[in-house]
Amino acid sequence: MAVRIENELGTIVIDPEVISTIAGYSALKSYGIVGMASKNTKEGFFELLKLDFISKGIVVNIEDDIITINLNVILEYGMQIEVVAQNIVDNVKYNIKNLTGLDVEHVNVIVQGVRID
Length: 117
Fold this sequence. Notes:
Blueprint: E1 3-7, E2 10-14, H1 16-28, E3 33-40, E4 45-48, E5 58-63, E6 66-76, H2 81-100, E7 106-115
Parallel strand pairs: 6-7
Antiparallel strand pairs: 1-2, 3-4, 3-6, 5-6
């Protein structure tokens, strides 16, 4: 369900895919994140997504103008998970507010893996 913003000039409709893309790029700019993850439903494992497909690791729910974003991420080994996750939440909320004017109620960071180089 898209978000509709009414003003004196007309209506602005923001598709959830736009919110997903902003969230994905915002998350990737966070320190300690390797990338977004997508579950391979056939084989049951998670794979690191390429930049063009980052929104596949993100679920945006919009209900009664309440926006909830679930981010499936892979983090870098050695990072404090709680600190990195909070940084991701802050970046996502800030950038969505800054670019769309929308407030995000919840950002859930689901750590699907840790990459060791």
